[in-house]
Amino acid sequence: MNKNPFEARVEELKKLMKEKSLDSVLIFNQANVRGLTGIDCDNACFTIDTFYTDFRYVPMVHRLAPYLKDGDIKKIKVKGTKVGYEGTISAAKLEELKKKYKKVTEWVDIGKEVRELRAIKTADEIEKLRAAEKLNDEIWSAAQKKFKAGMTEREMARVIQHLMIDLGEGEAFETIVCVGKNAAECHHVPDDTVWNGKEPVLVDMGVKLNGYCSDMTRNIVPVKPSKLYKKVYDLVLEANMLAIKAAKPGMTSGALDKVARDFLTEKGYGEAFGHSLGHGVGIEIHEAPWAAKKQKTKLVPGMLVTIEPGIYLEDNLGVRIEDLILITEDGCEVLSHSAK
């Protein structure tokens, strides 16, 4: 019988059950189910030892997780009176569960804790994430050669999207392309703004490969940038590199955010850096850990986090530089290698 490659996570879930005195857990979220079993299924419930699904997916369960029992998702067995569930399920779904399992007297939201179990990646997941980020680098290189003056932001985004479909599994998130002052909107939606070939361009992109996401932000810098743009770009780049150099196991994710934030604040641009430094990446594009102010998650080897400081000056310009890093035993490894 095949060994469960996610056994460590399942054991941590069992510990969580013990700590919270839970009799059962019901895991419905597709990303969480996959992160605990390796099975990507849009109609499933995992209950520690049983994978409940419908007829369509049973053979896949047998092939990928023969160590698990399978059951009919319409006949989920719930033990005891105190049950853990994910608060991200719909209110309608929770009401359905309450009506179906009337002996349950307490429903405990363990969604946050379950998501955190996926923060430390397995060796196989790390290799898949490396491959996804490598492909993202290759797509960025190919896309730049296809960009031409006169293209709109939508057309430039479409170039990237087509490459992601041809070479990977499509976008990990909707590609962001910002021409000129549109980059001051940090999550600008590509529109019909035309690139004249001379203005700066900000691109935030990630391809999905083998079910795992990648993430990176790069800028097309003008041959002759304005003095302000050059100053801002250099500051963001330094903040990015300072945070990468500082990243190591044992520090908190909030302390990592503080490295870049304090630097940009000292240079007079703290208020122009309005978002967090970064986030985890995996099956989903936004996962734990969160590198944000006051976050106390301790970084450990196997965690991935983006390093993406930015400065946004409304109606003028915007710069963000983002790399994906892996926390290692003595520091970090940068997975994105595109020139910046």
Walk me through the structure.
The chain has 340 residues and is of the alpha+beta class. It has helices at residues 7-19, 30-37, 58-64, 91-100, 111-117, 123-146, 153-167, 227-246, 253-266; strands at 24-25, 45-46, 50-53, 69-72, 82-85, 106-109, 176-179, 201-205, 216-220, 278-280, 287-291, 304-307, 310-313, 317-320, 323-327, 332-334. The strands form six sheets. It has a three-stranded parallel sheet, with no helix packed on it. It has a three-stranded mixed sheet with strand order 2-3-4, covered by helices on one side. α4 links the parallel β5 and β6. α6 packs across α7 (153-167) and α8 runs antiparallel to α9. It starts with 6 loop residues before the first helix and ends in a 6-residue tail after the last strand. 43% of the residues are buried. The model has no long low-confidence stretch (mean pLDDT 97).
